Amino acid sequence: LLDGPKKAILPSSAAWYDRKFKTPSGKFEFRSELCEKNGHTALPEYKPEAKSTLPFHLFTPHVQFGIHSQFINLDWMQVFYPEPFVYMHPISAEKRGIAENDLVKVFNTVGEVELRAKVTANVPEDFLVMYEAWIPKRKYNVQNVVADTPADMGLMKTGAPGAAIHSQFADIILISKGAAA
Fold first, then answer.
1. Which of 17, 75, 131, 171 could form a disulfide with 63 if both were Cys (CB 3.0 to 4.6 A apart)?
2. What is the pLDDT confidence band of residue 134, given thresholds at 50, 70 and 90?
């Protein structure tokens, strides 16, 4: 900001570029009768954070070269991401008897996934990280352990409910030492 603050120039594709929302009033609405008519509350409501008795938070980010698993199925992408892994902290791994490249099962109330472990201090001690990906010739789908909640007005606009992905939790156990997935 060498020349001081500037007013943002909004592209015409922004939802409110003309300072009008696509609401009955044309303004941002805290109370929405349209929401109420579609089975939601008219006013926003506080919902407490997700709680779990499982020991690990589960993160499922995108792989660096993929978008929601897109392009991961291309042969040349296998160089960057040849197989899925679950990343966990060394202290957590040691407590569970898990070492680098061991075959493990990550599970929760939604389902389970079998894959190999990568041990790294880049992950907090109470977290597991599994990247979204579709890996050819492998039985792996991170969605097997991800719970979602119908959350918005998608049904009204698109015919399908929108999904909110909130905090995820899981546990992990050793299946076999040093085995390939």
1. 131
2. low
